[in-house]
Design a protein that fits this description.
The protein has 121 residues and is mainly alpha-helical. It has a single domain (8-109), classed as Hyaluronidase domain-like (Orthogonal Bundle), CATH 1.10.3450.10. The protein is 63% helix and 3% strand.
């Protein structure tokens, strides 16, 4: 199943995510997540966990952020290169980069931007 990232709550959440309004992105996506089943539910849960991770990080909770990013990565590891209308390969790689930087407690090693959620064209 391809999730529609062009309109509705998924698109609204994606816009919030890109503006680093993580709590708001989580709220939009949770509406859809509640109605999903199977792998799509797990995939969207990974994205919701990722938004929560960066919300925690912005509040100074790097331990909580690392934990949520690890859970995000575990869910994304079971996805193919693209899933649910999103390019997953690069997303996984960028989540790994964030985990490594946070575990090293080195703010200079943090990637310049949050992991990119890129819808398929």
């Amino acid at each position: 199943m391809t999730l529609d990232w062009r309109e509705g709550p998924l698109a609204q959440g994606l816009a919030c995510y890109h503006q680093e309004e993580f709590f708001e992105a989580h709220e939009h996506w949770e509406q859809i997540w509640l109605g999903l089943k199977g792998p799509e539910k797990s995939f969207l849960q990974a994205l919701i966990q990722m938004t929560a991770a960066f919300h925690h990080l912005n509040r100074g909770n790097s331990v909580g952020s690392i934990s949520l990013l690890r859970r995000t990565l575990r869910r994304l590891e079971s996805c193919p290169e693209s899933f649910g209308g999103i390019r997953v390969t690069r997303l996984r790689s960028e989540v790994r980069d964030w985990i490594r930087a946070l575990e090293a407690e080195d703010s200079m090693r943090r990637p310049g931007m949050v992991p990119r959620i890129t819808p398929m064209d």
